[in-house]
Amino acid sequence: MDIGGLHFTFGNVAIFAVAAFLLAGVYSFIKQGLKVAALIVLFLAGLAFAGGVMWL
Q1: Residue 49, number of CB atoms within 10 A of its CB
Q2: Contacts 24+ apart (CB under 8 A), 3-9
Q3: Coil, strand or helix: which one is 32?
Q4: Is residue 7 part of a domain?
Q5: Residue 27 belongs to what domain range?
Q6: Is residue 37 part of a domain?
Q7: Contact predicate 49/16, CB 8 Å
Q8: Residues lower than pLDDT 70 in the chain
Q9: Number of domains composing the chain
Q10: pLDDT value, residue 47
């Protein structure tokens, strides 16, 4: 699927979905007061998002 000149595939969308899921985990960890775990999951979400962007 082409959107804005970018070719999105199932793989890109799946990786972006993983990044969104991990961001929800960051919110959950912050509400529980687990700041170190939130930072680790935020780093993983950043890696997933960067992977999705690089795959475009």
Answers
A1: 17
A2: 6/56, 7/56, 8/56, 9/55
A3: helix
A4: no
A5: 22-55
A6: yes
A7: yes
A8: none
A9: 1
A10: 93
